[in-house]
Each structure stands twice: as C-alpha cells, then as structure tokens.
Amino acid sequence: NITSVLKEIIDKNGNDAFKVYMTGYVTFFNEATPLCESSSFRIWNPHYDNTHKEKGQPWLTTALRAQLNGVVVALNTILSHITSSVNAYYGNTQRIVFVDPNSAYAGHRWCEDGVYEPDNGRLNTWLFLSSTPDNSLPDDPLGALESYQQEQSDLVAFQ
To answer: How would you classify the pairing of strands 96-99 and 39-40?
Structure first.
C-alpha cells in the first residue's frame, strides 16, 4: 500500500520540512503522428514496414499508442491522487510532491513527427528500446558501442 508506506516514511522522519518526491511515469509515444502506423517494436527484428506484409506484428497504430499512453496517464492520476490524499492527512501541507516528467519529454518520445521508428541512431529519443544499442553520451570517454563490447568481453572472461 503506497499510502501507508509514504505515511510511515514521513512519520519516522519527524522533520516537518521533510518532503518525499514521487516521480510519475513518462508516456512512451507521440500518438498523433501517423508515421508509426507501420512500425513494429517486437523483440526480434523491430522495424518499419509500410507494406504490412508480415502478419501478426504488433504495429504501433495510433489506437495502440493512445491505449498504451492511457495506461501511463491512468497510473500517474492514481499516484497524484495518493499524493493529495497523504498531504490532506497531514493538514494539507505538501509533504509529498508529485513530479510529472511528461512536459520535459515533449519531442523526445518514440514516434515523433518525421521519425521512422525504430530509429537506432536518433539521439533525441530519450526512451530506451531493448533491441537497440545505447546512444553514446556527449562527454563519455568510452562510447556506447565500446562500453557494450567491453561488457561482452568481461562476461566471456568471467565464464
């Protein structure tokens, strides 16, 4: 029970100025763009295919993207209500702060306008796709590919 855990954290702290920051979840997709209607994020061979010749693919239709984003929005609504409930319990003082990260992700989700997903090289997508390599950080002395190769080498040596 999240509410009970939050109250327990606040009560055990004892400091009236203490706050807990509860972070919401980010919606995954720009659901307005039609381009992703031909994209699949399946685990093996995610790809763009405007022919839809392959049957049984989980194509990222506008409806599916809206449904998946809707689950995230519903969860964030629940978390926000929990935050309000706990704050009300403490006399409407802001002991729990709900942080919704969605506005910061505008333009950085999957299926942004003009992007043929999955686009492994797009550094402006801030969400992780398990079937693609990581993007390198600008100041990382070891790039993502080199880090991955080193990790694989270490795993082989470990066995």
So the answer is: unpaired
d(CA 84, CA 88): 6
Provide the mean pLDDT of the chain: 85
Dist. CA 126–CA 65, nearest whole Å? 17
Phi, psi torsion values for 32, nearest 5 degrees: -85, -25
Q: What pTM was estimated for this model as a whole?
A: 0.76
- Angle at alpha carbon of residue 142, lines to 136 and 144, rounded to 5°: 35
**Chain segment 6-57, per-residue pLDDT in tens:** 999 999 998 989 999 999 999 999 999 998 888 887 666 666 666 666 667 7
pLDDT for residue 131 is more than 60: no
Beta bridge partners of 10: none
CA distance to 12, 67, 71, 83, 154, per residue, from 80 (Å): 22, 20, 14, 5, 43
